[in-house]
Every structure is written in C-alpha cells, then in structure tokens.
Amino acid sequence: MLLQPKKTKYKKYFKPRLLPRVTTKAQKLNEQNCFAIISLESGYINVRQLEAARQNIRRKIKREGKLEIVPLADKAISNKPTSARMGKGKGKVNHWVAPISAGKPILLLYGIDKEYGFPALKAGANKLPLKIKIQDL
Questions:
Q1: Max Cα distance, the chain (Å)
Q2: Residues ≥6 apart with Cβ < 8 Å to 87
Q3: pLDDT tens digit string along 15-70?
Q4: pLDDT of residue 8
Q5: Region of poorest pLDDT, from 11-15, 89-93, 128-132
Q6: Are 64 and 112 in contact (CB under 8 A)?
Q7: Within a domain: residue 117?
Q8: Is residue 71 part of a domain?
Q9: What is the reported pLDDT for 57?
Q10: Burial class of residue 100, CB neighbours in 10 A (0-12, 13-18, 19+)
C-alpha cells in the first residue's frame, strides 16, 4: 500500500523547498485514549518510511484501534541515472515525499490503552527520520 496521489496536475514538479517554520497551534482532540506522533522539526518523509512506521505500529497493537496517517505524500522526486549525459529532459519520478512542518502530528492512534499505545508509537517512530515526541492527547 504505497501512499501516493491518484492524480496530480503535473507529471513532474520542481525540487521541493521547505522553509523551516514552527507552528504554535496544538492538536486538540476530544477522544479518549488518543496518542499522536508529533514532529519537532521540519523536513520530508518518504512514502516507504511512512508505510514502514504504519506496519510496525499495526504489528504491535495487534491490528486493534484506529491508526490515522495525517500527511499526504504529494511531492514527486525525480532523478536521472548517474551514467546519463547532461540534457535530454528531466528524469522520471523516483519516489514521493510528504512535507512535514514542526509541531504537526504525523500519526494518530485511537482506541488503544496507554500500556500498548506508547510502545507501539515508539516502535513506529524509530522508522521516521525526524525528531519526534509522543503525546497523549
């Protein structure tokens, strides 16, 4: 299950630039037993990293509860082979990334007790390349 958009306006995009910014808004939910992985820095997360984190969390919680992936990987990263000469257009799409700004939730987990929720999110957070914190909402 690779997370990528079904349709985009253009086939290939410019190289994405992410401005380092921190959001001051906090995620407020009125759910019981809700945990979140919140990023502490801005950056990009690959589709494969998101999927690895999702699989790891689902394995730990025995596929109970609800796991929600907040960011959408909608930025295409293209590259050309290293042996190709200059010119002749842009390379094909290699992978998709999701832009993450600091302070925003990445994964939300609903309906799991604290004794299972925190270790599951900790195991999933080990697959992500950014500094994160696990918060009980």
A1: 57
A2: none
A3: 887 766 666 555 565 566 789 999 998 899 999 999 999 999 999 998 888 999 99
A4: 87
A5: 11-15
A6: yes
A7: yes
A8: yes
A9: 95
A10: buried
Domain containing 106 equals 34-76+92-136
CATH of the domain at 71: 3.90.1170.10
Which residue, chain included where needed, has tokens 């808004």?
25
Backbone φ/ψ region at 105: left (φ over 0), alpha (ψ -120 to 50), beta: beta
Query: What predicted TM-score, i.e. pTM, was given to this entire model?
Result: 0.84
User: What CA–CA distance (Å, rounded) separates 12 from 92?
Assistant: 8
The CA-atom distances, in angstroms, between 120 and each of 14, 43, 78, 98 are: 36, 23, 33, 22
Query: Does residue 38 fall inside a structural domain?
Result: yes
Number of domains in the chain: 1
- Average per-residue pLDDT in the chain? 87
User: CA-to-CA distance for 134 and 108, rounded, in angstroms?
Assistant: 10
**Backbone angles phi and psi of 75, in degrees to 5:** -105, 120
**Calpha distance 23→112 (Å, rounded):** 27
Task: Give domain status of residue 104, yes or no.
Answer: yes
Q: Crossing angle of helices 114-125/47-60, nearest 10°?
A: 150
